[in-house]
Amino acid sequence: MALTTDATAAARATLARVALAPGWAASAALVVPFLAGVSVPPTLQYVPLVASVVVLGLPHGAVDHFAVARTRDERPDLRAVGRVVALYAVVGGAYAVVWFLAPAASLALFIAVTWFHWGQGDLYALVALADADHLRSLPQRAGTVLVRGGLPMLVPLLAFPAWYRRVATDLVSLFAADAAALAWAFRPDARAALAVAYGALVAATLALGYVRAESRRPWALDAAETLGLLAYFAVVPPVLAVGVYFCLWHSLRHVARLLLVDDAAAAALGDRDLSRAFARFARDALPLTVASLALLGGLFVLVPDPPSTVPGWVALYLVFIAVVTLPHVVVVTVMDREQGVWA
Ligand SMILES: CC1=C(/C=C/C(C)=C/C=C/C(C)=C/C=O)C(C)(C)CCC1
Ligand SMILES: [Fe+2]
């Protein structure tokens, strides 16, 4: 498959461990104390999400201008970079305008897009990094995307509706609007229906994968990650859980994917020189990460009700993330197609 030609087997093997293990370790390390009933002050829970501005989170999208060309094994020349910049300006710009006009609907779209995007990231990791052979058809892969994306986007709604609602309200409040249009999602009957449907999807997807699996290990890894994250998002409060997941799960896996399509980084990985590979990524991501911070400042000036608290600032940051995620998903979906992730 096209994915294995991205880099040498040695590079992939080195990277798979480094890309997957921190997410497992961090989520396991958080599940245990929260199962034991510890409580963490709300402000502290925001730390990972704030850190994601510079640690993996925001930077993981800041290499999008090179990503498609590199995936196609082309040099990212000015034309290629310009195409991605135009994509961000048009799609991100339009979505930014929609936030001002219809904040509640924009939030719903953000959650739906993130659901898909975080699911597609995990599908790539399963197929390309974990050598999964149990996802043999498009419906199975689409089911896996829905299951994986639902872990960070739906499970917190089911387990922590009040927290979820607070964050949702923080976002739309920036635009001097209220989240009343979304109230249905927090009703017990709606959450119960979503829980039943989602639970059935998880069970059906894993069962079908089990039947289709030739080698048991990758299937077992898929099941363990799915059920592990289910427990994680069910017991760790959402702002903390999503913040850690964003950095160490989704973004780290995507950075690994970027390293494998960058010849110089892949060569460094082949030499087992992880720091040289990650330094390449940091250098590539730095300019647009800095530019993003400037745009974030612009958003601060434009919103009708600018933030003055940590949750307010994080809400502003999440609106910014929403705006850049839409074009980012287009880039990653093109990468998926080039690499045959859905085939
Ligand atoms: C923090 C948080 C939420 C949403 C976070 C989102 C949607 C983050 C998206 C990040 C993206 C898209 C990154 C790009 O890859 C919820 C679930 C609304 C409620 C609970 C707390
Ligand atoms: Fe992403």
Automatic annotation (TrEMBL):
One short Pfam family name for this protein? BCD
Q: Which reactions fall under this protein's catalytic activity?
A: all-trans-beta-carotene + O2 = 2 all-trans-retinal
Documented EC number(s)? 1.13.11.63
* Binding annotation for Fe cation: H60, H117, H250, H254
Transmembrane domains' residue ranges? 18-40, 46-68, 80-101, 107-130, 142-161, 167-186, 193-211, 231-249, 285-303, 315-335
Molecular function, one GO term: iron ion binding
State the GO CC annotations: plasma membrane
Task: Give the location in the cell.
Answer: Cell membrane
Q: What class of enzyme is it?
A: oxidoreductase
Gene Ontology process terms (BP) = carotene catabolic process
Q: Its family? A: Belongs to the Brp/Blh beta-carotene diooxygenase family.
Described function:
Catalyzes the cleavage of beta-carotene at its central double bond (15,15') to yield two molecules of all-trans-retinal.
Name by which UniProt lists this protein: Probable beta-carotene 15,15'-dioxygenase
Organism from which the protein derives: Haloarcula salina
